Amino acid sequence: MSPSTPTAACRSEECLVACALDGAAFELRPGTTREVRLATPEDKARVMDTLFGLRPVRPGELSLFGRDAADLAPDERLALNRRLAAVFAEGGLISNLKVWENLVLPACWASRTGPSPFEAEALELFDDLGLDADLAGRLPSRLTCFERKAIAFVRGLLTHPDAMVFDSVLEHLSEEERRRAARFEELFRARCMRGAILRIEVAHARAGHHA
Predict the structure, then answer these.
(1) Angle at the Cα of 181 (from 174 to 96), degrees rounded to 5?
(2) Which domains does the chain have, with CATH numbers?
């Protein structure tokens, strides 16, 4: 994405996310898919950190569900960020938790319920993505890159988010794995028809390149 002049963040609830960083100005609305291509990995990291509260924001840089993120108290920001989910470039799983814990703990936290309501849905998604149910007992370090991304996608979908962010989701995958990863958006749309998809890429990255 070419550099653009930041504009005032959208204050309408109909605008799920509005970002006004230098070189990364965009809006995300319900039911839409938006791709943002950034010049460098550092630019991409800055956008992801901004979206998920890992860096301070200045007034007008970020709007979440009609609220300027700079005006939000920590608990308010946390509540709004629960409405976003992400598949990070390396998955973004918690390394010392097994796959099943990575899946159900965020869903339980978001819904304030126990794990039982999510078990059938998680297993159905495993089947849809061709994942072996035995993965549930493994640590993330024992997963392939595709498996980590697929688990992160299932984790996000179990929270029933308003928007799903895909961070360079096809990078470091084989051609076959890229075809399987292409199902992420299809499955998200099937369950969250009014949900929004944000793809964040580095402009020069090659999706099929292996690390």
Answers:
(1) 90
(2) 17-202 (3.40.50.300)
Q: In whole angstroms, what is the distance from residue 201 CA to residue 170 CA? A: 9
Q: Rounded to the nearest 5 degrees, what angle is found at the Cα of 11, between the Cα atoms of 37 and 202? A: 10
Prediction pTM value? 0.86
Distances (CA, A) of 8 to 28, 59, 62, 92: 14, 9, 9, 30
Q: How many CB atoms lie within 10 A of CB 96?
A: 10
Q: Give the pLDDT confidence of 90-130 residue by residue, as tens digits.
A: 889 999 999 999 998 877 766 555 555 778 889 999 999 99
* Helix %, strand %, coil % of the chain (to 5): 40, 20, 40
- Cα separation, 87 vs 91, whole angstroms: 6
